[in-house]
User: Fold this.
Amino acid sequence: MGWSGADFKDLVTLSSAFRLVEQAEESKNSPMGEPEQLMMDQRILADLAKIFDRVDALAGVIEDEHPPPIAGSTLAEDDVATDPFHISHAAIWGLVSAVDHVKALRTLVVDSHTVPARAPFTLLRAALENAATTVWLLAPSERAERVLRRLRLQWANIKDDESARQLIDHAQTVPTKDKKRRLQDIGRAAGLSSSEVSLIASRTVGFSSIVETAGREGNGLEADIMLLVWKLCSGIAHAKSWAVLGLLDRDQIKRVTENVAQVRLSAPDSALLNITGLAAAAIQEGWRLFAAAWQPTQPNKR
Assistant:
């Protein structure tokens, strides 16, 4: 079964572009009620199982112990350029986390044979973010851009760590300004231009940019679809009404008042299938890039 960009355009179309008509009626039909777990269509479940099998096969190699990249390979030289913040480590971490979330979804769906309305999309959001991060790190053909992205990712990690430590009044052993200087020094040593060095800590890179860029640069992916699906999953994870009412199926149970209805929410089988397929495609592309970069350098990949 293929998972092309067209499949996801159809997904968006079939969901009526977030069901704008239903959203327009929301003001007079405000829903009230808890999501319920519903039985999944067995044909959809069988198709999901095929995707899960594909991810499990990838997990077997992704989660295996990896020796250092082969000397002279793109990854080996990238790791030298970004030492000690190796690109290879960040790339494989993203893939390991992505497959872990998809495997958790398999446990939820296949073992229980029921599908919570919202939880699957929270897992898929994390899978998309992590797989997209690996694609984002490895897709550029120029080493300078790969180095820049790795250092920007590390700066985001530093800022998150700083924020967490402030909550417990736990001072860092190395001041943030010194960590910033270290990243910039690594960038200069790797041959980044002054403007590129200034980008390392100019602002923290976020998943919106990472996911969209990965969709644009990854083979078989599509920027608009990747970003749209990620936004939907993120919106559902945070109970945003535009995403919940835009993607989830809902059946009215009863009218409570003139403006309020009690409804049952459920995850659309086709949306769950297609989004899981997209996450699997992103994982597969991330692994393809990693495996290619682990081998001796290609002439046009410097």
In short: Residues 39-248+273-294 form one domain. The chain has one domain: 39-248+273-294. The radius of gyration is 22 Å. The beta strands are 30-32, 38-39, 114-115, 249-255, 260-266.
